Amino acid sequence: GIGTSGTNERLWQEIDNTSSAYHSEDWWIRDVVLDVTLDGAVPPPLRRDVFTAVDPIVTGDKLWLCDVHFPVARCWETTTGRYLGQTLVPAPLRDRSYVLELHSDQQLGAVAASGKSGWILTPGQAVATKAPDWTPPTRATDLPQVPSPWEIVAVRGQGLFELQVETSRRTALGRVNATGGVDIGELPPNGYTISSVVQIGDEYIVGRWVEEYRLNSKLEIISTKELDISAPGWKSKGTVAYLSEDTHIRFFDQVSGAELPSLGIAEGHQGEVMSATSSESIVLIYRRNPNNSMSIVPTSVATYDNGTWTTMPLQEAPAELS
Description:
By secondary structure, this protein is mostly beta strands. The chain is 0% helix and 48% strand. It has a four-stranded antiparallel beta sheet with strand order 4-5-6-7, with no helix packed on it. Strand 18 and strand 19 form a beta hairpin.
């Protein structure tokens, strides 16, 4: 028999010749079951697929992760750590990429996306609901004019851009100023592109491969530092800049430059900042999946509220997909 997923339901048909059964205009093959058991033989038990978590998002007090291979998502409550169940995303196989993308939508909440379609994720709901008015998020394309020979090669957010000169090794940080023009802070030429940019108070920290530059408010270099190639480097989320260092994460208010209370991370674990302001933040604590380098094993959620960090262990979910 052949199971197909060209619609939101699974269909089966028994066939004798599979040569032309792999796809048509309406459906694609999902899986094949072949009965080749010899008389008297005992077939081995079927193994269920294991949930392999990727792409975490937080909407409100709900944490969602999707599977790296299958169109399913799982949910936990961040305030209690309680596991709230698994939801199937009925995306037709012909429209589905290898990995679903999870989005936090201001109106719809958690959305699982496949191509140009989206499904609303509801905790405890077996099958996600199609979002008829959902459109994939897009980045703003209006770029400022920069003086020749500079060109904008990457948008770094918060009015910051990466600039390069195509015919040379010159790289610079660009910043939109109050008049709509672009201030330029050129970095020493070395052929590497900018990997990260964060602002802390009146200073900018620019990471570039194994080098880190601190620039002042005039985009002048005030210090240079060599980096460990394996170091995660500076990142930002919301109004907060943060840096992972061994067993803790340091946080800074990007506007005032003040350092906020750091978060301790158990050895062998890492933290991903899901949302952050100077008064409230949520960090997912996880281990790397030893069986799949692309995925994670979530273990707890740390919540910051006006100066205090609270860590909530996540309830263990069934390993196998249901």
